[in-house]
């Protein structure tokens, strides 16, 4: 999630902000919810570092540092190329997304 939050500039990921899919028959956790609470995307999106990463507290890391740490542990398994047309009239956000993705790819 730290990788995705860094790429999208989501500044609202904290320990109480996670979703889980649960098997209703067994009441067991199946997985993390694929996308959870991304209404704060593209905040603190004017620098390559991003905001302070809340998911690693009490450690103090930027979103970039936390994402690079995650890439180091699990890699960056991009399934397909990003359709940058999705950014439509958001040229600055598209540019920062590309910079951050390139930054993570170089960090591998």
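^ Assign residues to that structure.
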């Amino acid at each position: 999630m730290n990788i995705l939050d860094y790429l999208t500039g989501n500044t609202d990921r904290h320990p109480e902000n996670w979703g889980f899919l649960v098997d209703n028959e067994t009441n067991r956790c199946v997985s993390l919810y694929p996308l959870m609470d991304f209404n704060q995307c593209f905040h603190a999106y004017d620098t390559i570092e991003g905001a302070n990463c809340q998911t690693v507290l009490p450690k103090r890391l930027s979103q970039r540092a936390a994402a690079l740490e995650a890439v180091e542990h699990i890699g960056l398994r991009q399934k397909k190329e990003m359709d940058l047309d999705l950014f439509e009239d958001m040229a600055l956000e598209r540019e920062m997304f590309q910079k951050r993705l390139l930054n993570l790819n170089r960090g591998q």
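The radius of gyration is 15 Å.
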